[in-house]
Amino acid sequence: MHKKFSSGFNRLVDSLQVIVFTFLFLDCYAGMVYSQWLQWGGPERNFKVDSTQLKTVWTEEGPEQLWKRQMGGGYSAICVDQDTLYTMYRRGDEDVVIALSAGNGETLWEYAYTSLPWQEFSKQYGPGPHATPLIVENYIYAIGFRTELTCLDKKNGQKVWSRNLWDEYGAQPGNRGYASSPMAYKDLLIVLASGKGHGVIAFNLKDGQSAWKSQDFINSYSSPIVINVDGQDQLIVFVETQVAGLDPNTGDLLWRHTHNTKHQIHASTPIWGEDNILFISSAYDAGSRALHLSRRSGETVVKELWYNKKVKVQHGSAVRIGETIYASSGQGPAFLTAVTVKTGEITAKQRGFAKANLMMAGNQMIVLDEAGQLAIVDASPSGFEVQAQAQVLTSRSWTVPTLVGTKLYLRDMKEILALDLSP
User: Can you give the residue range of the structural domain that contains 177?
Assistant: First the structure.
């Protein structure tokens, strides 16, 4: 009897050890998977990450604050590579690329260069920088307020190469400064410029040499994405009067579709779905469109599914979950809005937040509005239920949140901080 009990007990202990080891492995694996946010929009450039359940029981001050520090103005989002954060900010007449410790926020290195503002930029909204850096292997690529493109060694901030899009190509950045975040495709760095024959430019990632330049587009403020249409990669650019698809290998035009605004401002990122539906949205008396893309006889067929003038994403991030687009819609007063992607029907609207950026962490929506309110929201096509909410920032908060694992990184025009959302 004693031997049977001992044998059963040992099997139970072995089973418990396997369970504990499995949980530890999954936790470590999750840490490895979620330890990077290397570009605008996160891992897939769509403001979505897989995530464990985030904590929704907060104190009145919000979730646990790990650290907070002063930093200059600007709206660049925060990139994360393992234990280092990267972003850009403004210091006097300089744009600054900065690397910080993810653990305590201390500066690891800075690279600064003069980037004088002009016209009326700095009076109302500040002179940027607006674009978000890109990290590829050992390098970080950053574009400043005045189209200064720089490649740096991410370990020490030493310059590897640089190009000035304005000086070299006449690529004027628009009335509010350059804002289009660069992206990588194979061995190319793709950036939106402006002007005849070089509306889009691809540089070699390693040495900055021009690989191709194409089109006569006048740039707006949106960032490009790469999608796959029935087996073909396409570079999607949302520029002054249109959205267009290019061959990312050559810059050749595949298709274009008109989308005008009152001031020709497009500042939100297009959203692509596995059902071949492309969603685009602008404010300034424009609205939203959904386009279905398909390939037939070697050509791209573009079919407009709907247009809805009431859905207007000014410059925040929208996300798609299933058949629904979720966005902060409005140029003045803004509403959390749910839109059916195949029909354009608005299925839910809710007040309570100023104009906001959104991102999805698993099945939880993180909302950060321009007044500095942070919330976790349960979003569905039928409505929005706020699970937790707190005031965490104090000045204009136009930067989309960055989530790595359960660590949330935020910034406004004065500060950058790290929050712990561990359940």
Answer: 34-420
